[in-house]
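Table 4 source record.
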Amino acid sequence: MKEQARENVRLLRAGRCRYRCDMIPSPAEKKARYTTAREQLHALWEDEPDLIARMAAGACILHEAMPHAFWTGFYRVLGPQLVIGPYQGTPGCSRIGWGKGVCGTAWATGTSQVVPDVHAFPGHIACDSRAESEIVVPVKDARGTVVAVFDVDSAEKAAFDEVDREELERILAAMM
């Protein structure tokens, strides 16, 4: 993985990557990256009671763990809308309604959404025209109420799979 990271840096410096290197890691590489991220986040979250601080750490660490993502962040449930929270990447949508787009659907259903082609998703909200695929994972409190969603966008189609869903759900379950 270190060799791959060095190659990504070399390509980025040479101007041969669009934003970050958009290489989609193999399932084994994803698991290794998520394991490292989970360990880092558990250490950061251990003594941090503030949810927004936890979200900020999560957005940062998970963004670095996913080289195939250009936007990684949280939308918080505030009243009848999702409101943008801590994130890494370009400006996102400020507010998203219940059941609207991939994020609103994850909130309304309480289930993770893995979307291989956002253009085929009915009602997709395009906050950034580069988005080709997306994963959104609900963050639930101890009662099972969705309090936020974690959203990740990629410029590559089918960038996310069951490994991403399972690992992100596992990591985010420990956030609360």
